[in-house]
């Protein structure tokens, strides 16, 4: 298994922020109590307020990414920059999941792979500026 250096993830995150012209383009990197790491960002991109956290561990080759209330796992280092860039720039699809169940799915295509949220902390209809912009774009 390939190990995951937080410095490499921080580079991918910084590159995505720069490409998306997000402000600020700096991140906070911390060590977690479990020996893992997190990279946090909160700011503006294309007129929308957003935040994300990338959680990883030196022994894992993938990380968990939380964008606002949307949780994606696993995301590989090779996918991280493009994944975050597309999320920040609005190149994602937000749609209702299975009819009648009230769940929502956020899909981001990286290369030939579609990464779909594995969970969502909030419930109910999406309501943030960023989510509403994704809904207006449609699939």
Reconstruct the topology from this structure:
Layout: H1 6-19, E1 28-31, E2 37-45, E3 48-56, E4 62-67, E5 70-76, H2 77-89, E6 93-96, E7 104-110, E8 113-116, E9 119-120, H3 129-137
Antiparallel strand pairs: 1-2, 2-3, 3-4, 4-5, 5-9, 6-7, 7-8
Average of pLDDT:
90
Quote the beta fraction: 35-45%
How many strands, what sense, and barrel or not for the largest sheet? 6 strands, antiparallel
Helix content: 25-40%
Order of strands across the main sheet: 1-2-3-4-5-9
Straight-line distance between termini: 35 Å
Low-confidence stretches: none
Globular, elongated, flat, extended or rod-shaped: what is the shape?
globular
> What is the oligomer described by this structure?
single chain
Gyration radius (Cα, Å) is: 15 Å
Number of helical elements: 3
The overall strand count is 9
Order of helices and strands: HEEEEEHEEEEH
The helix-and-strand class reads alpha+beta
Architecture overview:
The chain is an alpha+beta fold. It contains three helices and nine strands. The protein has a six-stranded antiparallel sheet with strand order 1-2-3-4-5-9, with helices on one face. Strand 6 and strand 7 form a beta hairpin. Helix 1 runs parallel beside helix 2. The model has no long low-confidence stretch (mean pLDDT about 90).
